[in-house]
Write a structure and sequence with these properties.
490 residues; five-stranded mixed β-sheet; 19% strand; alpha+beta; 11 helices
Length: 490
């Protein structure tokens, strides 16, 4: 990809605001959040990348994008204004990452039928998810994952796919890393030749067709679902966005580090590959316990962390980071703690996961920085994080609290029975899931063969009747011709 020079970004920004000042105000006027994104300039880099550093084309695309976003209401889409059943049915969701570490937007095509959806509402759903992805990735690329297993002609809507690709082409610049097509039926191959024609030439190599046998080439191994041939047993459940009040106004937009996704991808700031050692001799923040114990209460499995500000004169701003953000939801993942006060943070195991997933490499990191004033603005806090001040760090592990309490009654607790038993159980669950999937596929194949056989019989009968009809006409015509060719006797 062509490197975007800083002066090109500055030029694009200046030309945008010059056009905005010299021309009559757009109708409708651009959304304030989009103006703020232009002022930050990081958004502009994507438009230049998308248009191969052509400033004229980038400016046109940026202008049209701001117009579309205001008319469509892209900044105002929330769960409250969307059809709840469309969010919860699992047609569109976010799960896992591709091999390059990019978030995947999954479209489960077998759940879609053209007549079963309100098309305008479906358009809003897609934009809503794209906006969540923008906040989650902070503008990084994503991969579209079309799960086409068990789909047919009735599940394919060319208008819907054209709309989705059009969004990426026209309004979400440099957004796509891959377009992954999983188990596409042969009957739909012709349709995807048409879809390719909708994409710009440089996007064609991004399309990757995969099966269970090679999906690991493009999808992170630990994120491959059981239905995709992997061992991840996650089950979709829609989780609304949760925004932190302190950071919600940062730079005029929602802070992506406090948003939680469905498909097990909470938007907690991604932790480094390994957590640094605590280097401060005098701790400002006391964190208890050092190992989070998770307990089952009703349908929820959760643990708590108690954060105590041990200083007498310094407010502290803290954040909680996770090595496996897809597994956990942190309530109050960041905030300000006043001197000599405490804050209890709840960590909830996401739906679809169980205590078998609490392995030894699941870790939590609590970091904090001192503030001069408890009323420090979000912008000032962001500037402090970007400075050279090293935050105080606390590393935490996790365990099965119920197993520790009832060790004698539960000698075979998942966490205490050893990794070999865990692997055995994982293999068993995986094999059972594969058997169920194979059985469902076999039923589908048998049903398909029955209809194919019936269709073949009908075609054969029609062809036979057609042949007989043609032969009868030929015989009749042949008879007439013979009579016409006879020489009359004189």
């Amino acid at each position: 990809m062509m490197e975007v020079r800083a002066e090109l970004i500055t030029e694009l920004s200046e030309r945008f605001f010059k056009k905005l000042k010299e021309q009559s105000p757009p109708d409708p006027a651009f959304h304030a959040a989009d103006i703020a994104r232009v002022e930050k300039k990081s958004w502009l880099k994507r438009f230049l990348e998308h248009n191969d550093c052509n400033v004229d084309e980038a400016l046109n695309m940026l202008w049209e994008t701001c117009i579309w976003r205001k008319k469509f209401g892209a900044n105002d889409l929330t769960e409250d204004v969307l059809r709840k059943e469309y969010l919860e049915d699992g047609l569109c969701s976010i799960h896992g990452k591709d091999r390059d570490g990019k978030a995947m937007f999954v479209i489960k095509c077998k759940l879609y039928t053209k007549k079963g959806k309100d098309y305008e509402e479906l358009q809003k759903i897609v934009v809503y998810w794209f906006e969540r992805l923008e906040r989650y990735t902070n503008g990084d690329q994503i991969s579209l994952f079309f799960d086409m297993a068990e789909t047919g002609i009735s599940n394919l809507d060319m208008n819907f796919i054209e709309y989705m690709t059009g969004l990426c082409k026209n309004y979400y610049p440099n957004f796509l890393n891959y377009i992954i097509i999983f188990e596409m039926p042969w009957i739909l191959e012709a349709a995807f030749k048409v879809i390719k024609s909708w994409l710009p030439p440089k996007a064609i190599p991004k399309i990757k067709f995969v099966q269970k046998s090679n999906i690991q080439e493009y999808v992170n191994q630990s994120d491959i679902l059981v239905s995709w041939g992997g061992t991840n047993d996650y089950t979709f459940k829609f989780i609304p966005e949760v925004h932190n009040s302190i950071d919600a106004t940062m730079n005029g937009k929602l802070d992506n580090k406090k948003v939680h996704f469905a498909e097990g991808s909470p938007l907690v700031e991604q932790s480094p590959s390994n957590f640094g050692e605590q280097g401060n001799e005098e701790e400002m923040l006391s964190v208890e316990p050092k190992t989070i114990a998770f307990y089952r209460t009703g349908n929820e499995t959760a643990g708590t962390i108690t954060l105590r500000n041990t200083t007498s004169d310094k407010p502290l701003f803290y954040k909680v980071k996770i090595t496996s953000p897809e597994k956990f939801r942190v309530r109050s993942s960041s905030g300000v703690i006043l001197p000599l006060t405490k804050r209890v943070v709840s960590v909830v195991l996401q739906p679809g996961y169980n205590l078998r997933s609490l392995v030894h490499n699941d870790r939590f990191l609590v970091v904090c920085i001192p503030l001069k004033d408890a009323n420090t603005s979000a912008q000032e806090i962001a500037a402090i994080w970007k400075s050279e001040i090293k935050p105080e760090e606390h590393r935490l592990g996790c365990c099965d609290g119920d197993a520790d309490i009832n060790d004698k009654q539960k000698p075979h607790s998942i966490l205490s029975s050893g990794m070999s038993e865990n692997r055995t159980m994982d293999t068993l669950f995986h094999n059972v899931a594969q058997l169920k999937e194979s059985n469902a596929k076999l039923r589908s194949d048998v049903s398909f063969l029955k209809y194919s056989l019936l269709f073949s019989i009908i075609v054969t009968i029609v062809m036979a009747m057609l042949v007989v009809y043609i032969l009868r006409i030929d015989i009749k015509n042949g008879t007439v011709d013979d009579e016409d060719c006879r020489i009359p006797h004189i």
